Amino acid sequence: MTQLILASGSEIRARLLKNAGVEHDVVNARVDEETIKQSLKADGASPRDIADALAEAKARRVSQRHPDALVLGCDQVLSLKGELFSKPDSVERAEQQLKALRGETHQLLSAAVIYEDAKPIWRHVGVVRLTMRKFSDEFLAEYIDRNWESIRHSVGAYKLEEEGIRLFGKIEGDYFNVLGLPLLELLSYLTLRGTLKA
Question: DSSP string of 122-174?
């Protein structure tokens, strides 16, 4: 089997691949995500294009050092009415984000790009629509207090696989995309190309 490298430090992505029986190594890609994001936003790029570009930047960076491997770069972008959200850098920022999302429907865009021989050979962007319920300020404060150490690493300040599920009233789309990896599409591609046994 061709070596697969996950160009991400995300524990959840690594766990999803491992649980699916996909052998892989992890090499964390060092890219300046915020600079790339701000540059693309200034050029009027869509949230979908920004997610794709960030995933590609990670795959490209690691592929340059491991040209014989399949390198999987991933990124996730949260968009509310065209505004992009990032991982909150403070409790106050998490509170602001969640108040903005409360009672609204936003999109999570999960991009994946595979590089081989320093060239892109596959890409996919999965989209999920999520509607937050109208929770109270008291619940919000207690939620952030209980979950801050976890949610500060998550775009939008929530994790559906944890208590964050209680913030939502409706979710439309693939759960794996919520977790940051279009897993079904990735597995289909790896099977079609013969990397995984059919």
Answer: EEEEEEEEEEE----HHHHHHHHHHHHHHHTTSTTS--TTTGGGGGEEEEES-
Query: What is the average pLDDT value for the chain, to the nearest integer?
Result: 94
Q: Which residue has the higher pLDDT, 72 or 11?
A: 72
75 among known catalytic residues = yes
Beta strands 168-172 and 119-132, pairing class: antiparallel
Out of 43, 68, 75, 174, pick the active-site residue: 75
Question: Which two structure tokens, joined as six digits, stand for 125?
Answer: 């962007």
Kindly report the pTM of this predicted structure. 0.91
Q: DSSP letter string over 42-73?
A: HTT--HHHHHHHHHHHHHHHHHHH-TTSEEEE
What confidence tens digit (pLDDT) does each residue in 136-163 have?
999 999 999 999 999 998 988 999 999 9
**Cβ within 8 Å of residue 193, ≥6 positions away:** none
Q: Where are the domains of the chain?
A: 4-192
The domain made up of 4-192 has a fold known as: Maf protein (3.90.950)
Place of tokens 């972008």: 77
Given a contact cutoff of 8 angstroms between Cβ atoms, the answer to whether 73 and 5 are in contact is no
Residues in the chain: 198
